[in-house]
Each structure stands twice: as C-alpha cells, then as structure tokens.
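Weekly structure sync, notes
Attendees: PL (lead), two postdocs, one rotation student
Agenda item 3: pending single-chain targets
PL asked that the sequence for the first pending target be pasted directly into the notes so everyone works from the same version. It is reproduced below exactly as submitted, 204 residues in total.
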Amino acid sequence: MHYYRYSNAKVSCWYKYLLFSYNIIFWFCGTIVLIFFLELAVAVLAFLFQDWVRDRFREFFESNIKSYRDDIDLQNLIDSLQKANQCCGAYGPEDWDLNVYFNCSGASYSREKCGVPFSCCVPDPAQKVVNTQCGYDVRIQLKSKWDESIFTKGCIQALESWLPRNIYIVAGVFIAISLLQIFGIFLARTLISDIEAVKAGHHF
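Predicted structure, written out during the meeting:
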C-alpha cells in the first residue's frame, strides 16, 4: 500500500482565521441587528396600520403621563422617548395637564404645576449637569415662547415622521448587511473548497 500526499493542497490559514473573526464579530453584533429589525418591524406595522397604531400609542402615552410620578419605570420610559425624539407629550406639552402634578388647574399646589418634565427641555450645550427643574412654570408663559425652552412637537408626530426621515439610512443598513452576508458565504465556500482539496490530495 502506498501513501501519496500532494504538498500543494492545504487549507488557507488566512481564510480560516478571517472566517472565524467574521463569525465572532457577527455573534457580538447579532443583538444590535435584532434591535434594528424590531425597530424596522414596528415602523412597517405603524405605516400599514397608521390609525390603529396612532390610537394605541396615544392611549399608551396618555395613560403613562397620568402615572408618570407613580412608577419609576414608566417615568424613565417616557423620559427616554421624549429625549430621543425631541418631543413633549402625545400631541404637545399641554398633554401634561393629564398629570396631577403638572396640571395647570387652580386646585393643584404642586411645585411642578404648569410645567413639564425635564425630558421636554431643549438641552443647553453649556450645561454639563442635567437641570431637572428646567421645565418648571414653562407653560405659564405665552405659547409663542415655549419653543425657546421646551420641545413643542408631540411624540406621536415625531414617531410618525421617523421612517420617511430615515428611509435612506434603513436602505443603506439593509444593503450593508446583505453584502456582509454574501462575503461570509464566500469565505465559507472558499474554506470548504480548501478542505475538499486537502482530502482529495490524500490517496492510500
């Protein structure tokens, strides 16, 4: 029995390590990608069922405005939505009248009366520390001056305009992900070909 080995048949270390690194990176990035697809799915559903989604979101937002000071998790959620989308209330700052602490009625004795949460405030680049009282007494002023210190756009309007404003970014991310997947397939096929070449180069 004779053993023959073809020395020119070998698995490329470059392909092996590149494919390994590629898989590790994608494994770590998988959660970023998941969040993106969830956001995209929400955006598509919101586009297809605009009226229903708008009503549900309004109910959700108004309900959480009423409970803003009662539940820290809801409070953080509302603040995150308002800061991220540069908005205030469901349809505008006046929605905060639904909250007993921010209500402008004469029956309220809260220090936050006729104000809005700090997440409604237009950020001041000069301030390194967040001013949590920046929204106090804001709604006592004339409406024409509100936009000098707080966001006047409602969060429903902000979310409705998100997809059209970011359509090119969404398309670009999809193209980039597709190209990376094609590159991964190329690396995998090249590695498989090298392995098959090594196997074919051994005869007994």
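Discussion points:
- Residues 1-7 have pLDDT under 50 and may be disordered.
- The first helix runs from residue 13 to 48.
Action: rotation student to compare against the earlier draft before next sync.
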